[in-house]
Amino acid sequence: MNNYIEKIKAAIDPLRNQIINHKVYSVIKDIDDINVFMKYHVFAVWDFMSLLKTLQNNLTCTSVPWFPTGSADTRFLINEIVVGEESDIDLNGLRKSHFELYLDAMNQSKADTTCINNFIELIKQNTPFDVAFNHANVPPAAQQFIKNTFNIIQSNQPHIQAAIFTFGREDLIPGMFHAIINDIEKVEPDKITVFKYYLERHIEVDGDHHSHLALEMTALLCGQDEKKWSDAIEASIISLQSRIHLWDGVYNEIVNRKK
To answer: Is 46 left (phi over 0), alpha (psi -120 to 50) or beta?
Structure first.
């Protein structure tokens, strides 16, 4: 199964490099630029949680009466990831999901949360996505990103869902971005400490422990099935292309704002 993993990594490597070296990082200079970035990225954080909970629903029993569902190994792996993503700790040691932590970061930096908050309220009311997108004024690039994720969610194919969770949803934040955050913190430390913590926590938890769990989960779900691994490659490529398009949207808004 290691050969299959290496095959996926080779197939997506050019796209990973495009994300790491995306031009968006070259135009982020101050807190206002970070706020534009967060306005888009928060939608990726939110639908990541939706993808995570879909996997938990598909790989474990989340209804009553309870019955053993699927493999105990995959149950353990997804539940372990859910605990970390849905109930991590913030700077004050309080339990929060990574999405709630991200909103805290946006509130601290005075980023516009109206769009994401309105969108979520509409979705809670079972508003169709296209209507919610329009009423909440969700940026087109973020709309496209969410649609791609939910197409995978609605496919009801856990091996594909696990693949984009593992390979297609890596944020791949380059060192240059962390340097930018550090520089902004020197100028406005009271506006970016939560976001800096979020990024550091993301590397510590998601980039290390959870990535290993996700790899193992994908390998178990695909097994030795050539078709499933082929599906995994295709879905991961599409997901990374969607991330590039999201970053294009951020870049264009920052550039147009400065003009």
So the answer is: alpha
Q: Which residues pair with 96 in a beta bridge?
A: 88
Terminal Cα-to-Cα distance of the chain (whole angstroms): 50
Confidence of residue 207 (pLDDT cuts 50, 70, 90): low
Single pTM value for the model: 0.93
Contacts of 50 (CB under 8 A, 6+ apart): 149, 150, 153
Confidence grade of residue 128 (pLDDT, cut at 50, 70, 90): very high
